[in-house]
Amino acid sequence: MVYLVAVQNISGVEELRERLWNRDLAACLNVIHIVHNLRLNGEIPERFQRAGLKEEAQLEEEK
């Protein structure tokens, strides 16, 4: 996953730059996104859920 980072150059102007992050930092940022979303609405963002998780939950509700 690639994150966009705002950096200030020598002239003080902010610009967006793509930067590759190491896996540990990317994992920490993902956990922050998950916890933030859990606090806001009590759900894990869909992009962080296992494939087919919604279908499994619907099947359990129907039983």
* Range of helix content: 40-55%
Total E-strand runs: 2
Instruction: Outline the low-pLDDT stretches.
Output: none
Distance linking N and C termini: 38 Å
Shape: elongated
Largest sheet: 2 strands, antiparallel
Q: Strands across the major sheet, in which order? A: 1-2
| Count of DSSP-assigned helices | 2
Rg value = 18 Å
Class by SSE composition: alpha+beta
The proportion of strand residues reads 15-25%
Order of helices and strands: EEHH
Describe the protein.
The protein is built from 2 helices and 2 strands. It has a two-stranded antiparallel sheet with strand order 1-2. The chain has 63 residues and is α+β, with helices and mostly antiparallel strands. 46% of the residues lie in helices and 22% in strands. The mean pLDDT is 74. A hairpin with a 5-residue loop joins strand 1 and strand 2 (14-20).
